[in-house]
Design a protein that fits this description.
- The chain is 12% helix and 40% strand.
- By secondary structure, it is mostly beta strands.
- Strands 1-2-3-4-5 form a 5-stranded antiparallel beta sheet, with no helix packed on it.
Length: 88
Amino acid sequence: MSLDTYDMNELFDVDFTTTKAQRLDYGESLMTHAMVLTGVDIVDDKSTKWKVENSWGDKVGDKGFCSKRCLDGRIHLSNRCQKRSIDC
């Protein structure tokens, strides 16, 4: 059944909108992917790149690891579904 068949918010006069964090808190969603920052390269007291471990296993990247550079003070992480940036 399509989730947009009925406008549940309007039907019940309740806002059912939740964030990803809220869905995780209440068990409505699961973590399916993780990336762990495992190392950093520091030049002139600034981080320039990070070593990242990917939860998809050693078949992805270099035995499960990749290197991400800092661009404009941010690390840009991406996968097929979403893109994220975090401060360096």
